[in-house]
Amino acid sequence: MPQESDVENEPPSDRGKIRRLLDEDIVRKTIASPRDIPRRMREEITEILAEELISGYDVRDIWKFTGRYGAFYPVLATLKQSDEWKKLKELAERGHLASSIVMKSLLPLVLDLIEKFLKQPSAAEKELGEKSKMILDEFKRIIEETIELWGRRAVRPGPKDWAAINQRLEKLLAEDTKMSIMERIRAGIQGALPGLASKIKEEIEAMETLALLFPGRLWDFAMMDLYKTLLANIESYAKLLETSSDLKRILDMLGRIELEYGARRIQVTNYGASEVYSVRTSKDIQYILPMELLKLGDDTLKYLFLAQFVEGKLLTYQLRGRNWAGGPPKKKRRGPVVALVDTSGSMHGAPELTAKAVVLSITKKMLKEKRDVKVILFSSTDQAKEIEMTQRSRMAAEFLDFMRYSFGGGTDFNTALKFGVSALREKKWASADLLFITDGLSKISDQSMLKDWGSLKRSNDARAYSIIVGNDDPGGLTAISDETYLLRGINDWELEHSPARIIKVIK
Amino acid sequence: MLDKLVALSEELNQNFKEREEEIAGSLLALFSGEHVLFLGPPGTAKSLLARNICSCIEGGQFYQYLLTRFTTPEEVFGPLSLAALQKDAFNRKIAGYLPTANVAFLDEIFKANSSILNSLLTVLNERKFHNGSEVVDVPLLAAFGASNELPEENESLEALYDRYLFRYFIRYIQDETNFQELILEKREDFSPKTKIALKELEIVRKEARDLEIEEDVLSIILTLRKEFKAKGYSISDRRWKKILNVFKVAAAGLGRKSVDRSLIPVLQHMTWDKPDQKEAIRNIVIDLTISGGINLDKLKKDVEDLRDTVEKFRDYTFPKVVICGSCKAKLETWNKLTEHKKKNQDHNYSIEGEDSDYYNSNMDYDNLLSKFKKLGWQIQISLDEWHAKKFNEDMLSFDGDMNDAKGKMEKERDRLKDLLAKNLWICEKDRRDVMDRYDNKIKTLHEIEGILGKLKDTIPKTENIPLPKKERRGGFI
Predict the structure, then answer these.
(1) Given A4, A57, A63, A64, which is the most exposed site by the fewest CB atoms within 10 A?
(2) What is the number of CB-based contacts under 8 A between chain A and chain B?
(3) B72 and A289: CB-CB below 8 Å?
């Protein structure tokens, strides 16, 4: 009995993704740039690549496909077999931004590969044997004619026009000759693909950083320049920190929002049996419909009853009832952070770069997790600057300024703590924790400040953490810090191996 | 036949207010042998409408039942035959039940429970009923279903939902006059006087089989399929096939010789899965009906992209930066300068690094251009031959699409209007929408034409428009 439902064939998560990708400006602009391949075919190739990238595209009717897309088929087939393609697909899974960038870089490459056959200089072919030369020439002609058909406007090509090309391709791609063409394409792909994924990855990451800092402003290539001059250097370090499991652990501890039970609650499910829900056929004799019992009264029907009982075909009530539903409790959501960054002159040099990298990686991570960050830059007495990076407002310009300018001035922890405490008194940041990033070369002298902090700690259950950079001594913050970490070895950072040795100081 | 149809639908429309779409769709479903689902809150005359449409079939067996979660197979497919059982056979007495009905109405259809679901699906889809060892052909024309809500997910009812090709969302009456007429209506026993014989349905179906599908209808369907796919609305191949069959029957019912695009709006009731898709589908269906398969909004975007790309290629970076003296903006390229000029007509410019004499610091646009000339700067780069040729090809391809749509829209406007007016299956709202949007679409068309016209001027003409196939191939062999 055909019971398959064709209401939904694709996983729901793919809905609309392809449309969005095709509508993306940079993808559209890539299609629009001029080529030998006519516009209409560029568009269709993009559509197929988009589908392949997002939900996978398997060519089912090869000869119909080649009849329509000619040389694109062997290119697609070879592309799909390559390792680099898997990497690209993984990149595309990161989201819309990533898949757009992949598409933008990939499309010209694929189109180039097809066009390459047209532009192949004859000199290179002289080395080939007579037979493979003929094959390639024929393939070239087929591509040309495919392109010509695609470009035809006045009378649209019908199945007949395609059939001719199709036949020749079929002959050409027969087993013995197929290889030399596939070889060619494979060579083309191998020449173009290596390193593409990692190159694209860099671009995606840069764009993702920018997208976090400037939500809603995408694809502005001036932004890319900005990124290169301001952030690229710092981010290369920040990226090292991002992979650090220690930092992740610290971030996970910050902020307090209690366990959410979310979806798990009592509702009617099939596991309970407190109410009659429906009728079904089964052998649950305890829930049998009374009319079935009538059968037992008749000598013949008695056997029917028994047979149906054995087969589980008796009409019975289906029961449902209230029970736990909705799966395990949701993951604990973590809270916001107020980061206090020491911008004093003593931080100059490696500690400064490290502090910026720590702040950048923290901000990126927090924003990605939809957590709010407030960065307070402190130096001399009563000098501090607040940069809010929240879901609502992103003071991105100020943030970039912080990344750009070098530190200077004194260190006054009293000021830092004062600003930190007053931030935590705001309702929005009430559940935040403090995170000091400093070289520790100062201490807290203001007793009333310490008292304030103590009372806030009690009432809000607030905590303070310190990350000490450029110093092996935890310094003057140990008194108020719940936990202190030393970030060691910042002077000999090599991008190749992670230097982020974070050491916890035990009091 | 057409006269009869008109009379019948008039009769029904008079009795049921604001149900034009549903009546047209139901009649069409009867003719094409498809099932209709009415969704909507209680008390919207779903059942009454279905019953009345059923009753217009002359000499047909009618089966109607209100399904509940406790409905047993006996109630829908007939009681077990005791006599047969004594002869070792497991048969139902199906006479008078669903397996013998021509038209069926199943109320609260999504309450169907698992004990009847499988048999029900087979009856609806294959029109067969397994009665013991015997497979009975079910003479079912159309089954109407009514429900208050869509089936919950993860239930096997989704398969049942899919069997319904036509889906209508019925709402309460909107218009006050209609509402008054409804509540003051005294006559209780309405039943359409016009009757259609089963034979007549058969004739229409036979005629439908050989009808041609016009080219633009096919092109609309191909565009729609692509659009739905990209949007993630999945419509099965079976559904498309059935839709085309419905089109043919609809055309045959109207006495037409081919399926023309005035029938396309019917498609909106056969393609949505979730109510929130309805509006989007309706919009695109109506737009494509107007343009005959060319998505004008998309075409406009494409043409604009081409324009921007051409501009980008023609852009020119000045050897030295031009600075706007009035607002201190730095203008490095020709495009930036022209854009600036467009927004600020009366600004003055200077060139960075040039002698800052009086003339350099305060040039208006025209003086700036003459300064450019003096410095030997190009004003705007012209495209090289290859780019010009390729841009030209793209432009002409769009131009072709535009002209296709233009032809469809301008020349065939009256034809479409006429076809729609005489189209019983299209409701007044759609008819009006198509014609109302016409002007809007023509505006878009003119915008596209305008951009293309400008492009034609900017791209230098090359004489070899169609790919010079022979010449190129000569180069390779």
Answers:
(1) A4
(2) 133
(3) yes
Long-range CB pairs of A383-387 (<8 Å, 24+ gap) are A383/A409, A383/A412, A383/A415, A384/A415, A384/A416, A384/A419, A386/A419, A386/A423
Question: What backbone torsions phi and psi does residue A277 show, to the nearest 5 degrees?
Answer: -110, -45
Q: Mark whether B140 and B196 lie in a shared domain.
A: yes
Q: What secondary structure does DSSP assign to B12-71, as a single string?
A: HHHHSTT-HHHHHHHHHHHHHT--EEEE--SSSSHHHHHHHHHTTEET--EEEEE--TT-
Residues B411 and B427 in one domain: yes
Q: Is residue A5 part of a domain?
A: no
Q: Give me the residue from A19, A31, A145 closest to B230, CB to CB.
A: A19
Residues A492, A372, single domain; the answer is: yes
Chain B's closest residue to A33, CA to CA, is B309
Task: Look at chain A and report how many structural domains it folds into.
Answer: 3
Q: Which of B153, B183, B201 is the last residue of a domain?
A: B201
- Asked if A1 and B69 come within 8 Å (Cβ–Cβ), the reply is no
Indicate whether B465 belongs to any domain: yes
Q: Does residue A110 share a domain with residue A32? A: yes
Of B180, B201, B222, at which residue does a domain stop?
B201
Q: Is B298 on the interface with A (CB under 8 A)?
A: no
CA angle at residue B406 from B400 to B407, to 5 degrees? 90
DSSP annotation string for A184-247: HHHHHHHHH-TTHHHHHHHHHHHHHHHHHHSTT--S-HHHHHHIIIIIHHHHHHHHHHHT-HHH
Would you say residue A97 lies in a domain? yes
Do residues A313 and A375 share a domain? Answer: no
Same domain, A129 and A183: yes
The verdict on a CB contact (< 8 Å) between B232 and A18 is yes
Interface contact A144-B114, CB threshold 8 A: no
Instruction: Decide if A3 and B467 are in contact by the 8 Å CB cutoff.
Output: no
Q: Which domain holds residue B472?
A: 210-313+385-477
**Nearest CB to B309 within list A33, A40, A137:** A33
CATH number at residue A371: 3.40.50.410
Per-residue pLDDT of chain B (477 residues; tens, 9 = 90+): 788 888 888 888 888 888 888 999 999 998 999 999 998 888 888 888 888 888 888 878 889 898 888 888 889 999 988 888 778 888 899 998 999 998 899 988 888 888 888 899 999 989 999 988 889 999 998 999 998 888 876 567 888 888 899 999 888 888 888 888 888 877 767 788 888 888 888 899 899 988 999 888 998 999 999 888 888 888 888 899 999 999 999 999 888 889 998 999 999 999 988 888 888 899 899 988 888 888 888 899 999 988 888 888 877 777 778 888 777 777 777 777 777 877 777 788 878 777 655 556 677 777 777 777 777 776 666 677 788 888 888 888 888 888 888 888 888 888 888 888 888 888 888 888 888 888 888 888 999 999 998 888 877 654 443 433 333 333 332
Interface-testing mutation among B69, B150, B218, with chain A (most A C-beta atoms within 10 A):
B69
Q: Does B114 touch chain A (CB under 8 A)?
A: yes
Provide the number of structural domains found in chain B. Answer: 3
Q: Tell if the CB–CB gap between A34 and B390 is shorter than 8 Å.
A: yes
Q: Which residue of B has its CA nearest to A21?
A: B230
Tell me how crowded residue B2 is: count the other CB atoms within 10 A of its CB: 12
Min CA distance, A135 vs chain B (Å)?
12
Q: Is residue A3 in a domain?
A: no
B390·A36 Cβ contact <8 A: yes
